Amino acid sequence: MQEVILAFITAFSLTYYAIPSVILIAKEKQLVDMPGGRHSHKEITPSLGGVGIFAGFVFSMVLWLDYQNVDGIQYLICSLLILFLIGLRDDIIPLNARVKLFAQLLAASILVFKSGFILDSFHGLFGVEELSKPLAFCVSLLLYIFLINAFNLIDGINGLSGSISMIISVVAGVWFFLIDNISHSIICFALAGAIVGFLRYNILSAKIFMGDTGSTILGLMCGFISVEMMSINSSLPVSEVYRIDSIPAVIVGIYIFPIFDTVRVFTIRILRGGSPFKPDRRHIHHMMIDVGLSHFQATSMLVLINLIFLLIVFSFQTIGAFYLLLVIFALATGLTMVLLRVNGKVTSRKIEKDKRSEEAVTKEI
Known about the structure:
- Helices cover 72% and strands 1% of the residues.
- It is built from 13 helices and two strands, in the order H-E-E-H-H-H-H-H-H-H-H-H-H-H-H.
- It has helices spanning 2-28, 49-64, 73-92, 97-115, 133-153, 160-178, 182-199, 211-235, 247-254, 256-271, 284-291, 295-315, 321-364; strands at residues 32-33, 45-46.
- It has a two-stranded antiparallel sheet with strand order 1-2.
- Helix 5 crosses helix 10.
- 42% of the residues are buried.
C-alpha cells in the first residue's frame, strides 16, 4: 500500500512542479498551439504538457516498481520512449500521418513481439476463447494502435483525454490492488498521479495542452492496462471475489467514450469517401461545444456519463459479454442521437438568427 501511495505522490509532484517550467520555455520558444480552424481554444497555448506527464510517470514507475514482478516492463518503457520522441517532434513541427503511424506500429510491435503483453483470448466473447499466435499478434497490434489514436482524437477540449485516462488508471489501479497485484497497481497510480498533476493546468482555463506527446502515451498505457486486466483476470480462480465476469465488455464499458467516438467518427469519414485519419469537427465533444457548453461543462458531462457506463458494466457483468456490449452500445448510440438532435436544433436557430440579422441590415440600407 505504501509503495502505491508513494508512486502516486511522486508522479503528481514531479509533473505538477515541472509543468510551469515547460509552459515558460514553450512560450519563450514559441512552441504553442494557435487558435482557429477546427481548434476549440481561443488563445495561444503551449502544447507540450505531455513532457510533464511522461517525466512524472516514468520517473515514479522506475523509482517504485519491483521489476522482478513484471516481466517485460523494460519493453513498455522503450515503447513509451518512441511515442514520446515522435509526439514531441510532432508537437513542435507537425509530422506526416504515415510517419506517426509507423512510429505507433513500431511502439506497439515492441510490446507485442518482445514483452508478451498481448491479447491472446476473447474470453468467451462471440464464443471465442484462445486465439492462435498469429491472430493474437494481429489483434493486439490493432488494439494498441486503435487506442493510441482514440485518445489522441478525443484530446480536443480541456481536460477530456486526461480525465478519462485518470478514471481508467484509478479503476484499474484499485482493482489490481484488491487482487494483491501491487506492481500493476503502482504502474496505474503512477500514471494517475502524473495525469492529476497535469490537469491542474489544463482542466479549467487551459494554460497548456498535453499534445500528441501526452495523448499517445496515455493511449498506449490504456492499451497495456486493458490487456493486462484481461490476462490477469483469466488467471484468477472462479471463487475470487474480485474476478470480473464478461471482462471484454467491462473493459469496453470503462473505455466507452474514446472507443465509441472513434468508431463512430472513423465510420462516418469512410462512408463519406474520406480518410479515417483526416481531422474534422464531427467528434462528440465538438458537438457539445457547438451546442453552447464550455470546455469544462462538456468535459464534466462526458466524464459523468463515462462513470455511469462504468457503474452499468460492473453492475450487469453477469448477463454475458455479448449482451452487455449490446446494452452499452445501444445506450451510447441513443445518447449520441439525442445530442445530434439538440445540435441540429441549435444550428437551425443560429441560421435563422443570422438570416434575420442580414434581412434587418438590408432593410436599414
